[in-house]
Prior knowledge:
- Two copies of one chain form a homodimer.
- The longest helix of chain A is centred in the last third of the chain and has 21 residues, at 164-184.
- Chain A is built from six helices and five strands.
- The first copy, chain A, has a single domain (5-184), classed as Rossmann fold.
- In chain A, strand 4 (110-115), helix 5 and strand 5 form a beta-alpha-beta unit.
- With 191 residues, chain A is an alpha/beta fold.
- Chain A is globular and about 50 Å long.
- In chain A, helix 3 (59-69) crosses helix 4 (87-97).
- Chain A binds chain B through residues 13-16, 42-43, 45, 47-52, 81-95, 97, 124, 128, 131-132, 134-136, and chain B through 13-16, 42-43, 45, 47-52, 81-95, 97, 124, 128, 131-132, 134-136.
Amino acid sequence: MARTYKVAVVVGSLRKESINRKAALALAGMAPDTLDLEIVEIGDLPLYDEDAEAAGPPQAWERFRREIAAADAVLFVTPEYNRSIPGALKNAVDVASRPYGSGAWSGKPAAVMSISAGAMGGFGANHQLRQALVFLDMPVLQQPEAYVGGGFTLFDEQGEIAAEGTRAFFQTFIDAFANWIERTAAPESGG
Amino acid sequence: MARTYKVAVVVGSLRKESINRKAALALAGMAPDTLDLEIVEIGDLPLYDEDAEAAGPPQAWERFRREIAAADAVLFVTPEYNRSIPGALKNAVDVASRPYGSGAWSGKPAAVMSISAGAMGGFGANHQLRQALVFLDMPVLQQPEAYVGGGFTLFDEQGEIAAEGTRAFFQTFIDAFANWIERTAAPESGG
């Protein structure tokens, strides 16, 4: 039986009707059977603070760290704020990178899709995140790069991806990620 | 009478005994009389969320936006997390950049000092922040660049800057910032 990989999906926008969240769900729906994608929430994570760590970490941090640790791979879908990574997303990255020496991200295959309203597709946010993923030793899917512009016209009134070309790109992206995970994920732990 | 410039100091670490906070206070103590530096707190800012904005922004956001708006210039002193900007600091940048069209940062002269335990001095965090400051149209002090390594030996047991060379560099940096502010700050509003 083919292995199924658990993929934690981290969405960089906290807005309920976020286009990024919709895109994440669309990708989850198109993913091959070998992937099991689930959104892991970041909106309740207190700002990282070493003093709070020392005093006994907040429950939300522990919950998030557990969920990332339990995943085989991570998909980031993020908007761009001020040409750079959203603070909420970077905070989530920081929270699960600690405590020092036992971070939850380490070694997990990752992919990044950035989405913006304008034409540039969140390049600035995408690559600021990639910079941190280098340090976290996460092998990141390089191609296809996913800078998705025109966010507000991405979905039609039925909530479906509006353009056939976009749908095809999403499919190529998630298939490539599935392939990347098979090549780079840690071996299954015995069970 | 020479004009005095209000400088909001934003510290990227939330830790009470943060080296970055100590460095910020040291810079405040060394600054020429033309500058009035005051730390503006970021640890209580809820994660930026457009839904919360629409529902009526949290008080901490309004307090922070007011304090930034009231300043003539901004000094950032920050550690580096995972080779990149701390989430808490980027969240603060995001919070005061909104609501869209009336951000508090716009046009204010800025300077960035990054401090790390290792040798690299937080270059990654420093430049990720600078990337956002471009979009926010903040003229940033270019020289001297301030990548301060060896953070844990920066201060002696009396809480003073340990090395004479470091003290001299801090002085050069804050003097250059004072000069930069005089050249680039908005004209004083009438009163």
